[in-house]
Amino acid sequence: MHISYPNAQDRAQAEARGVSAGGLIMVHGQRNRLGWLAPLTQHFNWTDGCIALSNDQMDEFMSLVQTGTPIEIRR
Question: Is there a catalytic annotation at residue 28?
Fold first, then answer.
């Protein structure tokens, strides 16, 4: 599920700092045919900025969250 990032405020903040705002941020499960590795991969930063879930967690997420639901990412 793609996240609507960066928005106008995110782009303005990045421009003011002279950096890229980035983009293509998603909530996703494990790669196809690699779901069995979830217990291991969840302990490493392998997502390049995305929000990674196990495939079972992703199925639950998709059943609870409708496309278009605002998602706030906090540090």
Answer: yes
Q: Is the pLDDT of residue 63 over 90?
A: yes
Q: Pick the catalytic residue from 50, 54, 57, 61.
A: 50
User: Contact at 8 Å (CB) between 6 and 22?
Assistant: yes
Judge contact between 48 and 23, C-beta under 8 A.
Answer: no
For the chain, give the mean pLDDT: 80
Domain that holds residue 54: 8-64
Give the pLDDT of residue 37. 63
Calculate what percentage of the chain has a pLDDT beyond 70.
75
2 among known catalytic residues: no
Distance between CA atoms of residues 24 and 26, nearest Å? 6
Out of 1, 6, 28, 57, pick the active-site residue: 28
Answer yes or no: is 25 within a domain.
yes
